[in-house]
Design goal:
alpha/beta; eight-stranded parallel beta sheet; 19 helices; 499 residues; 16 strands; four-stranded mixed beta sheet
Length: 499
Amino acid sequence: DGSSTPVLRSAIQRYSDIINREHFTAPVNYKQGVLRTSGTFRGLKVAVSSATDDLQFGVDESYELSIPVDGEATLTAKTPYGALHGLETFSQLVSANGQGRAIQNTPIHIRDAPAFPHRGILFDTARNYFPVRAILRTLDAMSYNKMNVFHWHIVDSHSWPIQSKTHPELQAKGSYGPEWQYSYQDVQRVIQHAKERGIRVIPEFDVPGHTMAIGYSHPELMSCMNVLPDWTPYAADPGSGQLNIAKNESIALTKDIVGEYAQLFPDHFFHLGGDEVNRNCWKDDAYVQEYLKQHPREDIESLLARFYSEVHGHLQKQGKAAFSWEETLFHSTYTPPKDTVIQTWIDETSIPKAVARGYRSIASPSNAYYLDCGEGGWYSNSDDDSWCDPFKTWMHIYNFDPLANVTDVEQQKLVLGGEVCVWTPQTDEHRVDPKIWPRACALAETAWSGKKDANGRVRTTGEVASRLHEQRFRMVGRGINAEPMQPLWCARNPGACNL
């Protein structure tokens, strides 16, 4: 049942093609030679109990895979998305054997399900533009690692690359140019490609900060718009610019934006940003100060809380729930609705603080999951390190445990998972693969399997390395330009490169 759904039909064809063209040998088995087999593989029967392709948070991703010594293998799942993951696992069990292929160590029985329901990548397409082909390739790589959320940080201060039918001036003046834009058709293509791989697309439209790109078409709604040469009092990075929260027109435009894109993106969640809001921007804005003078019972914090309340309320009217960066909860007087998911990033202590207040949380600590760290600063007249040095190795990512400081069992359930963040001030399509992979594989494994094995023992990077080497080489064979983890000699000799 369910095998006729478009998602599952597409997946079966895709994995048939992958297995038929792939001739993979793990680096540790480079001297293995041809194995004598004791049985004959007679195909894989896939059975899915659900006949719907609906993909939303909480969809059942479990599966069971049984491969006998001889005969037909079976894959059963409750949904097409569990079957997707089972097909990926099956493809990884098939290896080259001379001119043919073999599945070793049969019989095999796997009963599998993710430890966390949210296993994602934040992908920034505003600082530098990425053609659709680079996004689709990233989605392919995510599916090879059973990741299921593409957090599309689609706009930011530097550009507004997405088409708006409600306010076409936004991309006309806020994008890098006509060739650096995403049409509705492009977005729908990304969403469909992701869905066919069991990946939800959550868009982020960050307000009221990080909005300089809006100022190119609506300068009348901005505060501290592109202050130069000294932008540092007004923004975390150049260029500066925030929506003027004292103007009702700013709220109206934001509601238009939320309303339009809440319809374009089908996921139940919609990210409203809310990070790195700079109070100096409004303290030095003549209009804001005049407004506060005329309304002595208000201040910047009350204006900001009103802005958040209006925007979050409007999103709720669209039938959506919000994602929000942690500052909305911790650094303002606003209390977000309880169905808001708080994305934490400042450090690992933010996770227990968020769940202690009863909010669901996504872990993205900059000291563990930020993939742009350690590349050096990008300001032209400075030779400083990046703000979040050092470089986050795959070992560092693997060793981070989002539950480490959450001891209450009920609060642990509020930690939905994690995202590695691909901020792109120094990255475009030409180097994005090695920026992400195989480091994101480390989060993918811990978010799927958890930090502990079946016996409750915490897995170490030393024992994981050989498996991750194998996955890296497999991804390269599938067209993903993942960077090497170590010299090939280390990959071929597990344990030889331990300290």
